[in-house]
Each structure stands twice: as C-alpha cells, then as structure tokens.
Description:
Distance between the termini: 57 Å
Largest sheet: 4 strands, antiparallel
Number of domains: 3
Low-confidence stretches: none
CATH topology of the largest domain: Nuclear Transport Factor 2, Chain: A
Radius of gyration: 26 Å
Amino acid sequence: xxxxxxxxxxxxxxKWAVIALLVIFIxxxxxxxxxxxxxxxxxxxxxxxxxxxALTETELVSIDVVSRFHGEKYYHVVLGRNDDGNIGVVYISxxxxxxxxxxxxxxxxxSEEEMLSNWRDACSGCxxxxxxxxxxxxxxxxxxxxxxxxxxxxxEYYTVEDGSSYELYFRLQRSLY
Length: 177
C-alpha cells in the first residue's frame, strides 16, 4: 500500500530542500549587506586624515564638507572656513604624498549658484544632475553633470575664476539596455 500524507505534512526531501534554499538565501543577503557596508566605508575612508591635513596646513579653522574627485589623479576636496569666515577649498592628492596641498579662497571665485544660473541659461534643454568642485593641472574647476538634449550623460568643466568653459568634458552615450 502507498503511503498517504496528511494535507499539512510534506515529504522529508521537500523539507530539506526548503531549508537549504532558505540558508542559501540568508547567506546571499548577508554577503550583499556586508559588501555594501564595506563599499560605503571605503567611500569615506581617509576623510578624517584629510580634515586634519586641511586644518594644519592651510588657513581653514573649520571643515564643512569633504568629498572625492577622480580626474587624472584622485583628490579629497575639503571645503571649510577661515578665521574671517571666508570659504576656502583644499585639494589633497591621495596618490602622491609628496604633492603640495592646494588651497584656494572661494570668495573671489564664481559661486555655485551663479555657475548653475549661467549653465542653465546656456543649456536650456538639459537635465541637471549634480555640481562638484574638481581640479585639473592645479586649476580649480566646477564639474557639472547633466543629461543633454541627445540623452547623453555629460561631465562638463568650468573654471571657478570666471565660469568660462574648460577644455575637459565627457559625453557618454546612454545605453538602451
């Protein structure tokens, strides 16, 4: 006679298969969470050291923001204030410890708001994404990221002194996939 099962019982192999799938699922989720946390920690690693360098080697007395910029070289960009309350920016090379720490007083430069206003006037069909401070060959720049009218992802650079277009820009065709 064939063995009959009650409606709420299952064969032994089915129970083990469900348990195995559950363990694998929990393992994958744990791995993904751990990887995400490690990437996030790496993203801001070295920021505390860059703050200390900016405070000790420049006129800054307080730090507002620390960010990253990857151009030809990798930099930490530190924004802060000096004794007079003026905003300054410090570029610290993360690739070359012997490279000089670069400091610029931003009060004499084109502000972020003014730069965005000028950019919006010049690029009416564009979809703004982000603006950051950048640097190329010891020249401080504004980096504006946007989607242009041809649906391309664009990185465009402007000098912070007068807001004029800088020679570097990248236009990346967006994938349909």
